[in-house]
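We were asked to recover a plausible sequence for a given structure. The inputs and outputs are reproduced exactly as logged, with field labels preserved.

PROBLEM: sequence recovery
POSITIONS: 446
GIVEN STRUCTURE:
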């Protein structure tokens, strides 16, 4: 009986994975699963990434550059076609597409390179550590060998097993274990996930063939057609003598207008009026304002920071006509965001939410418990009360209720806004907010 349950459970997970890869992969780049689905650039992993990444970083779902960065690459550096692959080691559909990728490499040995980026899905609990382990193997020159072993052992990806696979490849085990213990590669993986979300590639696997999107474990013929099309489009740049990264950047930049639609297909504007319950939220502005902006945000998300000047400009232009309600949506791959949200509510209890909010956004890379307490001290909060709130988890339920409210209305990425119930996803420019606010003010006037 237990065996039957295990089989049923595996099939159920597989179906969910496929559903995400298919449904989410074929709709717009709205913030449905991962951070910054309509948002600004992904932070680089380190200085090396800055040196290797394309000179122009992505700026939204309509980005003209999908950076290779420091990701692992298979194939010739001077290939005319770059396939960016977003994948993860516990997804059965990612495993299914491996023979197709191998066949492509063999059929186009001089023309195709494959760039592997990580997008471990939240319901695959072993996938994040497996991704870290693959990068630790990659540092020792064995990424693809380790990659193959992981896909052959998708149901055996616990720490002990990951170490066994490293031993099979005769890796330096002290270094391998140290890399896993330190969490050395967590940020690189988080950056890959953020980029995937921004491009609307929220299911696995997802591919971008010279910038043109191909979702799911498609058959070889689909990939072959995409590669042939990419080669044809690259001919003018190839004739100019461009190769590798330079060729890839020019192809993407030149085709930006058509790749925009491919990377994040646009859909009709959402005119739904959502009834968001923001009664628990801290409010900035007049309680009687005719316009309420409900903001779902979190303190570790770089895209949430970018929208702050826009919100300030809204405050300056509209004054008492607009109020902002802040609701918490800490994302699972931002490990410090949840406690930061609770700390913000502890500050709110003492009448200092917005001051504390500003400090947290100014210090996004320093949100550990000790630092959260330091910021509370800076604001002159009652520290015994503040610490007691964090120790007791007093505001955990508040944050969880905010998350549930976000999910209820399809707000799964950060930031997401509701302007009098009208959804606006991502770090949108002032003009986008202005248009909605003016429409709502006109309705309020009538």
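RECOVERED SEQUENCE:
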């Amino acid at each position: 009986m237990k065996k039957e349950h295990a089989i049923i459970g595996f099939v159920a997970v597989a179906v969910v994975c496929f559903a995400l890869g298919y449904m989410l992969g074929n709709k717009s780049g709205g913030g449905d699963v991962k951070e910054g689905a309509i948002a600004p650039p992904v932070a680089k992993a380190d200085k090396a990434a800055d040196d290797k990444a394309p000179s122009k970083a992505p700026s939204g779902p309509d980005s003209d550059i999908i950076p290779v960065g420091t990701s692992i690459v298979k194939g010739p550096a001077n290939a005319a076609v770059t396939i960016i692959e977003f994948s993860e080691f516990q997804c059965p559909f990612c495993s299914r597409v491996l023979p197709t990728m191998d066949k492509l490499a063999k059929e186009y040995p001089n023309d195709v390179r494959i760039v592997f980026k990580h997008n471990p899905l939240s319901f695959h609990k072993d996938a994040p550590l497996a991704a870290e382990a693959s990068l630790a193997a990659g540092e020792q020159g064995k990424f693809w060998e380790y990659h193959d072993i992981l896909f052959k052992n998708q149901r055996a990806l616990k720490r002990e097993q990951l170490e066994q696979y490293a031993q099979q490849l005769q890796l330096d085990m002290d270094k391998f274990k140290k890399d896993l213990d330190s969490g050395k590669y967590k940020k690189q993986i988080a950056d890959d996930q953020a980029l995937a979300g921004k491009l609307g590639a929220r299911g696995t696997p997802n591919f971008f063939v010279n910038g043109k999107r191909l979702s799911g474990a498609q058959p070889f013929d689909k990939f072959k057609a995409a590669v042939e099309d990419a080669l044809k489009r690259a001919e003018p740049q190839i004739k100019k003598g461009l190769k590798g990264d330079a060729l890839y950047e020019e192809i993407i930049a030149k085709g930006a207008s058509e790749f925009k639609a491919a990377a994040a297909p646009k859909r009709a504007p959402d005119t739904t009026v959502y009834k968001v319950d923001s009664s628990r939220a801290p409010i900035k502005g007049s309680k009687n304002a005719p316009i309420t902006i409900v903001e779902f945000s979190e303190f570790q998300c770089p895209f949430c920071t970018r929208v702050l000047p826009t919100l300030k400009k809204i405050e300056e232009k509209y004054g008492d006509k607009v109020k902002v309600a802040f609701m918490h949506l800490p994302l699972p791959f931002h490990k410090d965001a949840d406690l930061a949200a609770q700390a913000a509510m502890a500050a709110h209890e003492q009448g200092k939410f917005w001051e504390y909010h500003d400090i947290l956004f100014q210090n996004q890379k320093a949100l550990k418990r000790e630092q959260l307490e330091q910021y509370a001290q800076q604001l002159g909060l009652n520290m015994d009360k503040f610490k007691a709130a964090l120790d007791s988890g007093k505001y955990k339920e508040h944050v969880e209720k905010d998350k549930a409210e976000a999910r209820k209305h399809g707000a799964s990425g950060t930031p997401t806004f509701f302007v009098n119930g009208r959804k606006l996803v991502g770090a949108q420019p002032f003009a986008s907010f202005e248009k909605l606010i003016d429409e709502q003010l006109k309705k309020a006037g009538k």
